[in-house]
Amino acid sequence: FQGGDTCEYLLSSGRFLGEKVWQPHSCMMHKYKNSEAKNCLIDKHIVFIGDSRIRQLFYSFIKLINPQVKEEGNKHGNIPFEDKSSSIKVDFLWYPEVNGSMRQRIKSWTEGSVAKPHIIVVGAATWSIKIHNGSNEALAQYKINITSIAPLLEKLAKSSDVYWVLQDPVYEDMLSESRKMITNEKIDAYNEAAVRILNSSSRNSKAKVKVFSVSKLIAQETIMNSADGLHLPESSRDTNAMILMNVYCNKIMKPIDGSCCQPQPPLTLIQKMAFCFFTLSIIGYLIMSLIHRNNYRKNKSCTDLESGEEKKPSISTPNVSTLEMLLHSFCKLGLIMTYFYLCDRANLFMKENKFYTHSSFFIPIVYILVLGVFYTENTKETKVLNREQTDEWKGWMQLVILIYHISGASTFLPVYMHIRVLVAAYLFQTGYGHFSYFWIKGDFGVYRVCQVLFRLNFLVVVLCIVMDRPYQFYYFVPLVTVWFMIIYATLAIWPQIVQKKANGNCLWHFGLLLKLICLLTCIYFLSYSQGTFEKIFSFWPLSKCFELNGNVYEWWFRWKLDRYVVFHGMLFAFIYLALQKRQMISEGKGDPLFSNRVSNVLLFISVVSFLTYSIWASSCKNKTECNELHPSVSVVQILAFILIRNIPGYVRSVYSSFFAWFGKISLELFICQYHIWLAADTKGILVLIPGYPMFNVLVSTFIFVCVAHEISQITNDLAQIVVPKDNSTLLKRLLCIGGFFSGLHLFATIQDQSRH
């Protein structure tokens, strides 16, 4: 860590990812839309001063404000631009040489009577080389002129952003005869003189003219695509304009995926309180450990030499061990949350943009599939969707989703559509698993509900506090939480129909089907009534949980995208358990699920259905249209996979322990990736080891997986303490939790008021 300003990195260093994507060193560059550019530059005056290369940059810059602008007008004259809707004024001033005329123009802005531009972009040299035929006298005069201009620029830099654009290299083989004297050797000499003089001037002044040298690096890679060997191709100058926009606007707009030039956000009141809590937990645990160790030494067991028996100390009590476990868990959690904060909130580690290539997605997929097959073991039971199998399913899906996120594969529509099926499959398992539990066990007690809600939400609630993010930001957890409550409400409301009751009277099966039909009707109605849906979730306190950026549209979109799949999971569980009860399927080890003929037919239909869906998803042309069909058709590939995985007896009797291990911590992996594997809230990639992309991924992945596993253990330990089985104790804990969230809401309100 060099401790440097990311603005300096943005202006001076970087590399190309592929052909056209520029990656600044150590930080992420935001791609500004027209509306964002206008909001940033409202009531601003920007001036570009220089030659034809600066004019190119001027046009690329104003196209970020208004893409309809055409490159017209006098090439060797001043060009004005104004966006009246946002009161933005951008001028190009034709001063192809650094001379007295340019000095006079700059000097006029330093005088008190003239309004100063907010941004000044200056640069020139090639005309001096061309007119004076590359003479040494011209270079000497250039140095004298810059020396006289530098103090004026420093004076302007106190109140405005001033950028000196270094000269880009040329492609000498393509230059016309009249430009042959413009060589890269001469350009380097002029650039060296400008940098030396400007740096010397800045040492004597608090303000600093920013040297825009990154354009040189970009030109070195792209100048061979130039039309005349002198001027940059359009894609390169657009990149320069976007860099300029990031340098000025990131600190104003604070885009999530624009970490360059962004200051570290100040700690909020709630974050400070969380820091104090974890610090006290660590201190408390250390004190308890010291006390425990001293007591252990005093009462250390020793052997009675006469009887040969060991005398055992009698010091620990259940209360002490519970408190110690609580402090130990919060101590570990505090250290982990510090790592989270340092990775994605402090400007300590570097961040980079994602860049998708087919190899970056498919090669890791093949690699983990080979690993998964290598670790094959026999299952303890051979039922359909047994525990080992569902853990395995969650595990490989989670690994594929992680690779999808880090590779930026969402830009490739066929991959996106298949990943949508994996997310739907998670929700399918939610419907299947919770329905099966309530149907078989008939346990609708508060303890079960609180256990599930705690395990699902604990990590997200902590991250909302530490990382200052809304609950809806971690969209998957609100999704599975709401669906769990819907499943619970559907089965718990009168009449409560469970398997034991239905076995006594078949009519209860029809009663349950009627409940499921009512649920489907409600889902269908809400999916086509956005207004009703938004009204329901806009009521306080639901609005506090489901609002993102001031509205619940994002929540409605996420819910609607997989609205039927949980119902499909519940229906599948009901049909499967009914068939199992009537012994219409065979689940013995090595036995096919049905008779050979039926199994073969179902297997053939499943394979065809699976491939048909993949072909359809791969031929998708429009994400919006495919998303509209996805809720209804995703179940086809999910059911096809279940049947392919379970009909053959041998396949059902084995599982991958490698995938199952990851499946047990799949929720933690999904949530933790936001901040300690990816970066900038999933928009970029965390860089712990710059310059070595593969090694960086290995190290960050190892830490990420270890942290997710540790958080899973902490959650399980705390669930036993926070959610006890005794109803009276549980009620007290619920009152405490209610008080905690009330206090959190109060502090959040105070925090919001102080921000406004």
From TrEMBL:
The way it spans or sits in the membrane comes to: Multi-pass membrane protein
Which parts of the sequence belong to the NXPE C-terminal domain?
A: 22-92
MF terms from GO for this chain are: N-acetylneuraminate 9-O-acetyltransferase activity
Q: Which GO terms describe its cellular component?
A: Golgi membrane
UniProt cross-references to InterPro entries, sorted A to Z: Cas1_AcylTrans_dom, NXPE4_C
* Signal sequence, start to end: none
Q: What is its main location?
A: Golgi
Domain named Cas1p 10 TM acyl transferase: residues: 253-734
Q: Mind telling me what this protein is named?
A: N-acetylneuraminate (7)9-O-acetyltransferase
Species this chain originates from: Neopipo cinnamomea
